[in-house]
């Protein structure tokens, strides 16, 4: 038995490499919507009246314990659809968007979502993004 072959002696770079390798191997099947989780590209459920879709996926990591362990958890996350916010709201409400009776439900539809705007440009013409909550 090799006394150097214990988990505390495994370099962190090797653990990170295995973690990144798992994500790279699965890049064809899954989509990364964040740093830690990989999701199936097609939503599991579309909730039209609430303006979001639910994606299923996996969150995984490699951890050194008394042996090297791979932790895999199934995750479900709701995402607001991509696109122009006005177009998405128009798809649901149509011409009633201007009706004050719809404003309360429109408010609840967009309350708490994070929006990323990517159409901004600096004075030099360089594009940048802004996030709003």
What are the main properties of this structure?
133 residues, alpha+beta, two-stranded antiparallel sheet
Structure description:
The structure is a single chain. It is built from 3 helices and 7 strands. The mean pLDDT is 80. The chain has helices at residues 12-25, 85-93, 100-110; strands at 31-32, 37-39, 45-47, 52-64, 68-79, 115-121, 127-132. It is α+β, with helices and mostly antiparallel strands. Helix content is 26%, strand content 35%. The N and C termini lie far apart (55 Å). The strands form 2 sheets. Strands 1, 2, 3, 4 and 5 form a 5-stranded antiparallel β-sheet that branches. The protein has a two-stranded antiparallel ribbon with strand order 6-7.
How would a textbook summarize the main sheet?
Answer: 5 strands, antiparallel
Helices and strands, in N-to-C order?
HEEEEEHHEE
Helix content: 25-40%
Overall form: elongated
Quick description:
26% of the residues lie in helices and 35% in strands. The chain has 133 residues and is of the alpha+beta class.
Task: Summarize the SSE layout with pairings.
Blueprint: H1 12-25, E1 31-32, E2 37-39, E3 45-47, E4 52-64, E5 68-79, H2 85-93, H3 100-110, E6 115-121, E7 127-132
Antiparallel strand pairs: 1-2, 2-4, 3-4, 4-5, 6-7
């Amino acid at each position: 038995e090799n006394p150097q072959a214990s988990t505390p002696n495994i370099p962190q770079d090797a653990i990170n490499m295995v973690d990144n390798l798992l994500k790279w191997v699965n890049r064809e099947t899954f989509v990364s919507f964040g740093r830690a989780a990989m999701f199936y590209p097609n939503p599991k459920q579309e909730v039209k009246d609430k303006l979001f879709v639910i994606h299923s996926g996996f969150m995984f990591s490699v951890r050194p314990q008394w042996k090297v362990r791979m932790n895999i958890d199934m995750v479900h996350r709701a995402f607001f659809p991509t696109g122009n916010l006005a177009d998405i709201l128009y798809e649901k409400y149509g011409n009633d968007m201007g009706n004050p009776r719809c404003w309360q439900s429109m408010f609840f539809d967009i309350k708490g979502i994070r929006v990323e705007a990517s159409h901004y440009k600096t004075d030099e013409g360089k594009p940048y993004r802004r996030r709003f909550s």
